[in-house]
Amino acid sequence: MTQTGADRHRVVVIGSGFGGLFATQALRRADCDVTLISKTTSHLFQPLLYQVATGILSMGEIAPATRDILKRQDNATVLLGEVTDIDVQARTVTSQAAPGPLVTPYDSLIVAAGAGQSYFGNDHFAEFAPGMKSIDDALELRGRIFGSFELAERATDPEEVRRFLTFVVVGAGPTGVEMAGQIAELCNRALKRDFRHVDTTSARIVLLDAAPAVLAPFGPKLSADAARILAGVGVEVLLGAKVVGLDAEGVTYEDADGQQTFIPAACKVWAAGVAASPLGALLAQRSGAQIDRAGRVEVEKDLTLPGHPDVFVVGDMIALDNLPGVAQVAIQGGRHAAATIRARLDGRPEPGPFEYHDKGSMATITRFSAVASVGRVKTAGFMAWVLWLVVHLMYIVGFKKRLTTLLHWTVSFVGRTRSERTTSAQQVVARNRLRNDPDGTPLWPGAVGERQSRQSGG
Q1: For the chain, the helix, strand and coil percentages under 3-state DSSP, each to the nearest 5
Q2: CATH number at residue 239
Q3: Which of 276, 271, 357 is nearest to 315 (CA)?
Q4: Where would a tag sit more exposed on the chain, N or C end, judged by fewer CB atoms within 10 A?
């Protein structure tokens, strides 16, 4: 089936993340029709996924419905579907969902499909250590984390109790540090009085990374501050440790001397690497563009695809000037692409090369403790934590979501409880069963994505 529109300029946006959503909103008053195609029905605030996984926030707080966000934007249409083909010659996008494929023509295309988790060629690790890139990841991890405490409570063998109370987080970047810190908060504070046969404060939380420092891009001072805060809440940090094995029983890592050590652990979290969407490789194949080792597309300075000025690539998918894969790059890139399209429609000079304005980096570790690097200001502790709260609250979409998020933060950080602890067996096992049935007919776009990620090695 082919979808056709009116005579107005047709813009297709792929992805409902920061880049895709902000690009769509920036075209609100443009003389064009915008079609946003996404494999999910929501806009995900990815930096707060770990709070869904550890019971602080519900998925609704960080993933509002895209249709609801854009319901007052008359020139925007939202379509659910996994993009499976882009024909840059015919200027069409093919997306897949029940009952079948849909072909959508475009005059301008913005590709903002983001990135997935990379297991560095060890895709079988995904079965035992979910990443932190989607709502599915967060809900699966919530089931695994809280389920580990439940299984420890009923275990009679001391070795099994220790295995259930050992949590290994792979990756000492912001996501890994934040996850390790919140698991420590669960063990030392939120769940301290909930169990009768196990002492949650005796849990072992291990943060592993092959890198030589925690939060290395933040600089030596903040890296040392973060390591100190982690140690203060009982997180064991192992650096220069490369994961060489991971299964249901635990994790095996190799140190700089080549010595291998096995850590028995029931719950593992993978936060170690990213790989661009498989659409990057597809664009390269269709257009002759180059991609880097992470699958990111090498774009022109104005974010267009080489030889195809009507195609823009933004966010985590681009390889340009060593730009980091952070939300601000996606937001600013989406707005830049939209500004270029508006200028073309209005007959005005185009904005020219994309200029990224670094607004800083920050990571929260525990309640009242964070690290922040904003311009020349590098701080750690309570003030950094307050700054983190304010900035993240600003970027949550919608007043109601901000209000409920603030309420949940108050309950979790001032009190001891976690209001979102509900788990189900489906959260833990459903995706692995999808992965184990790669030939099944997908009825939902996410099922297509599971297979694509597995086959693409990312």
Answers
A1: 40, 25, 35
A2: 3.50.50.100
A3: 276
A4: N
Residues 242-294: pLDDT tens digits? 999 999 999 999 999 999 999 999 999 999 988 889 999 999 999 999 999 88
Same-domain pairing of 158 and 19 = no
358/360 Cα distance (integer angstroms):
6
**For residue 342, which amino acid is it?**
R
* Domain encompassing residue 322: 9-117+275-346
Whether 443 is in a domain gets the answer no
Q: pLDDT by residue (tens digit) across 384-438?
A: 999 999 999 988 887 788 889 998 898 888 888 888 998 888 888 877 776 665 5
Q: Which of 315, 346, 377 is the last residue of a domain?
A: 346
- What are the residues facing 366 on neighbouring strands? 369
Known active-site residue 178: yes
Residue 45: helix, strand or coil by DSSP? coil
Q: What is the pTM of this model?
A: 0.90
User: Is 149 part of any domain?
Assistant: yes
Name the strand (E) or helix (H) holding 22.
helix 18-26
328, containing H or E segment? helix 327-346
Burial class of residue 410, CB neighbours in 10 A (0-12, 13-18, 19+): exposed
CB atoms within 10 A of CB 1: 8
CA distances to 155, 193, 323 from 376, rounded to whole Å, are 51, 42, 19
Residue 124 CB partners (closer than 8 Å, separation 6+): none
Residue 123, burial from CB neighbour count under 10 angstroms (0-12, 13-18, 19+): middle
User: For residue 197, with 0-12 CB atoms within 10 Å meaning exposed, 13-18 middle and 19 or more buried, which class applies?
Assistant: exposed
- Clarify whether residues 50 and 183 are in a common domain: no
- Beta strands 308-313 and 235-239 are unpaired
Instruction: Tell me the C-alpha to C-alpha distance, in Å, between residue 451 and each of 100, 116, 273, 295, 344.
Output: 17, 12, 19, 17, 38
Cβ atoms within 10 A of the Cβ of 222, count? 25
Q: Do 201 and 256 have their domain in common?
A: yes
Same domain, 250 and 386: yes
31 falls within a domain: yes
In a domain, 262, yes or no: yes
d(CA 246, CA 331): 35
State the catalytic residue, choosing from 61, 82, 140, 178: 178
Domain termination site, one of 320, 346, 372? 346
Q: What is the domain-level CATH number for residue 89?
A: 3.50.50.60
What is the total count of domains within the chain?
A: 2
Check: CB of residue 41 under 8 Å from CB of residue 63.
Answer: no
272 residue type, one letter: A
